[in-house]
Amino acid sequence: MIQRVIDLKLPKGKSAFLWGPRKAGKSYWIRKHLLADPEVKLIDLLKTDQFADYASRQV
């Protein structure tokens, strides 16, 4: 695996968007570093049902 230059250390209770080009390893990095923690919630806005759920919410 190629060593990546990403150091994402968020304070507890904070969120972030992970942007980047296709096939850069974003999903792999998320699975390897974040999803091991059962408290981490992943929201994939490319999944139609998740996008629709969040888009329909009133602010």
Count of individual helical segments: 2
Secondary-structure-based class equals mainly alpha
Report the end-to-end length measured between terminal Cα atoms.
42 Å
Strand residues, percent: under 5%
Specify the overall morphology.
Answer: globular
Helix content: 25-40%
Mean residue pLDDT: 82
Give the gist of this structure:
By secondary structure, the protein is mostly helical. It contains two helices and no strands.
Task: Provide an overview of this structure.
- With 59 residues, this protein is an all-alpha fold.
- It has a domain at 26-55.
- Helix content is 27%, strand content 0%.
- It contains two helices and no strands.
- It is globular, with a radius of gyration of 13 Å.
- The mean pLDDT is 82.
